[in-house]
From TrEMBL:
Entry's family note: Belongs to the pseudouridine synthase RluA family.
Keywords from the named record: Isomerase
SUPFAM superfamilies: Pseudouridine synthase
Name by which UniProt lists this protein: RluA family pseudouridine synthase
Pfam families: PseudoU_synth_2
PANTHER family: MITOCHONDRIAL RNA PSEUDOURIDINE SYNTHASE (PTHR21600), RIBOSOMAL LARGE SUBUNIT PSEUDOURIDINE SYNTHASE D (PTHR21600:SF44)
Occurrences of domain Pseudouridine synthase RsuA/RluA-like (ranges): 18-165
Keyword Isomerase set for record: yes
């Protein structure tokens, strides 16, 4: 990703933090085998500071949307604490295969990371760590639904596993649900739409939204009979 591209994806900036619109398909940091990552571009986000910003949390490689970076060491510690204490309110948008019975609800399923010869994944398990996700149906189609999901805990792959375990996996999720079969629909249909972050005790909570990427706009329009402008403007 070029410096111009990463700078164009900046959603919010102040003296302590940045929020960028992470693209789908790019990991936030290099894995054990190396490779390109979003961190490779952080140097262009220094904006006069001696060091580049650092990740305050993570998003899955195939998830797009709001990603928070700390610009200073003290700020990064504060941001890490806010995420760890559940004080950052996050909203994800997802296109799922299937239909929740209720328009609103809460998924409370403990999660546990398991490893086998094929690698690792997360599964719902009574012996796992507590995990809670609230959901709201934004629109329904014949065989799909558009959901707003708010994780109350921050477990790895939480939203993906909770949706799959509930009987409505996220479209394009080859690990926990259904991969794309149509050639014109690509990628995990999960987007970190918005966050609310109380970084400054004496100021208003910071509110940031990431625009929905083009492939999700098209898929939502096709699957739940929404117009493109309705999809982009829905809150």
């Amino acid at each position: 990703m070029s410096p111009e591209e990463i700078q164009a994806r900046l959603l919010y900036r102040d003296r302590l933090m940045l929020v960028v619109d992470k693209p789908a398909g790019l990991p936030v940091h290099a894995g054990p085998s190396g490779g390109a990552s979003l961190e490779d571009s952080f140097d262009v986000l220094r904006f006069g500071l001696p060091k580049p910003p650092a990740l305050a949390h993570r998003l899955d490689q195939d998830t797009s949307g709001c990603l928070v970076l700390g610009r200073q060491r003290k700020a990064l510690r504060r941001l890490n604490a806010l995420f760890a204490e559940g004080k950052v309110r996050k909203t994800y948008w997802a296109l799922v295969v299937g239909q929740p019975a209720e328009d609103r609800g809460r998924i409370s399923l403990p999660l546990r990371k398991v490893t086998d010869r094929k690698g690792w994944r997360v599964k719902a398990d009574a012996e796992g760590q507590p995990a809670v996700t609230d959901y709201r149906v934004l629109a329904r189609g014949p065989s799909h639904a558009w959901l707003a999901l708010s994780p109350r805990t921050g477990r790895t792959h939480q939203i993906r596993v909770h949706c799959a375990a509930s009987g409505w996996p996220i479209l394009g999720d080859p690990l926990y649900g259904t991969s794309m079969t149509e050639p014109d629909r690509q990628g995990l249909q999960l987007h970190a739409r918005a966050l609310s972050l109380p970084l400054y005790p004496e100021r208003e909570t910071i509110e940031v939204e990431a625009p929905l990427r083009a492939d999700m706009v098209k898929n939502l329009r096709d699957c739940v009979d929404m117009q493109g402008d309705e999809v982009c403007g829905h809150s």
